[in-house]
Amino acid sequence: MSKIHPAIQYTVLRLALFAGVLGVLWLLGARGLLALGLAALVSGLLSFTLLAKQRSAMSESLVRRVQRVKESIDRSAAAEDEAVDALEAARARKPNERK
Question: Which of 41, 33, 28 is nearest to 17 (CA)?
Fold first, then answer.
């Protein structure tokens, strides 16, 4: 069984929390935009504490991904710099053939 990506897990749990709060508000008589607004506010506040572990895991996953991309960019830039330096060195060794 594969592990669910932390960002997907956090998003699904946030949506489930929103739906649960919306359902409770619906049962209490809130309807329309009022219910949606209150559900967004209350679920956001609840998720701040209830989903702290999942939010932290998602954040760590994103930081690792960004770090891998930065390292890849740095390796590519270094390889490009080496290629340019080698080309310039080869040009410097050739006598100037222009007249």
Answer: 41
